[in-house]
Amino acid sequence: MARVNENFLKLPGSYLFSTIGKKVKEYQKANPDKKVIRLGIGDVTLPLPEAVVKALHTAADEMAVKETFRGYAPDLGYEFLRSAVVEHDFKSRGVELSIDEVFISDGAKSDSANIQEIFAADSRIAVCDPVYPVYVDSNVMAGRTGSYDAKTGRFSNVIYMPCTAENNFVPELPGETPDIIYLCFPNNPTGAALKKDELQKWVDYANEKKAVIIFDAAYEAYITQSDVPHSIYECEGAKTCAVELRSFSKNAGFTGTRLAYTVVPKELTVDGVALGALWARRHGTKFNGAPYMIQRAGEAVYSEEGKKQVAEMVGYYMRNAKVILDGLKTAGYTVSGGVDSPYIWLKTPNGMGSWEFFDYLLENADVVGTPGAGFGPSGEGYFRLTAFGSYENTLEAVLRIKKLGS
Ligand SMILES: Cc1ncc(COP(=O)(O)O)c(C=O)c1O
Q: For ligand 1, which residues put their CB under 6 angstroms from it?
């Protein structure tokens, strides 16, 4: 008799974006003349850079010719892309990697969800709170957590590390010792970034405790401050304790095109087993490689033209971030993020709950954001706005929020 994986039943419904969608739809229906501005989405809105589109066309033409047609891609990625990654994302920052430490994939979402498979079933995980929900949910599905407590918004057997205004949204080293530590910096949703000495503390801690850090650097392209590391491997000793996740989604607009990679250094071993070998084995069994055309598009991101266009795109979004950050500060809001990140995290005014503020903003300014509580219990009382809208809409939204006062 077939039985379901009961761990899935522990997951509370993922109501965040569907609830937001429903509320906005109802509001629009009741107020058809209102122009609603959405600053809640984590998706990019600008089209792919020209260099990327050109590479896609060229690769598509290659696929139409017998001599240049490609079938299955190598499981771990084409050498041309892995070499470009090593050269441009790491060597240029003083980090030496070899191409077989880079594993190409179709997204940081899948990588961050799948990486837990190579660890023991009874590993204890530590996560920031609030957090990108994939880290916890994938471990719930794997049976690594206890049950969900609706009152606290937490699963048992998970170490939650609150990130609040009190600690500047930088987690403190946990009291209990975890086996796997998920860190995402620059952070979604708080927009906080870690300085090199702050990240070094985590690397030292993980090496001392023999824990592994899963470092999600999906927003690396948004870093503007020079003392914020772009890669965890800029910290001494990180190669023996950290896996790094990168994505082409937020820098080059690949959210619908799908391309990412994971770095697993050769020095990273657990119980004498190289984690890279396990990850390669997992990839080989469960993944048939990112498409040739998409990997060529990814390679184009590193061309001179591509780099320039990506910088322009990131610059466009960061101009929006500054508009939101400065505007809200002027209006008297307590805001953070938005400097090394496309996310702006604000304290809801007058003690309003996250969802209460969501309704307030929608009904009084026709602006949509994301309630912080949707990312974890420590997100209650906070609200996320994103810089991924158009410049004009961002200006308009901030003007409307300013008019409300705080
Ligand atoms: C922290 C974080 N990691 C990973 C992802 C997903 O990246 P990808 O589009 O490569 O799957 C997101 C997307 O919003 C994210 O916020």
A: 42, 107-109, 112, 132, 184, 188, 216, 218, 247, 249, 255, 260
The reported pLDDT for the residue numbered 406 is 64
Nearest ligand 1 atom to the CA of 248 is 10
**Looking at residue 166, what is its pLDDT?**
94
The whole-model pTM stands at 0.97
The residue-averaged pLDDT of 375-403 equals 96
For the domain 7-47+306-404, what is the CATH superfamily, name and number?
A: Aspartate Aminotransferase, domain 1 (3.90.1150.10)
pLDDT tens digits for range 158-177: 999 999 999 999 999 999 99
pLDDT in the model for residue 134: 94
Contacts of 39 (CB under 8 A, 6+ apart): 324, 367, 368, 369, 385, 386, 389, 393, 394, 397
Structure tokens at 109: 């979402």
Tell which CATH classification among 3.40.640.10, 3.50.50.60, 3.20.20.140, 3.40.50.720 matches the domain 52-304: 3.40.640.10
Instruction: Report the atom number in ligand 1 closest to the C-alpha of 187.
Output: 1
Return left, alpha or beta for 244; rule: phi > 0 is left, psi -120 to 50 is alpha, else beta: beta
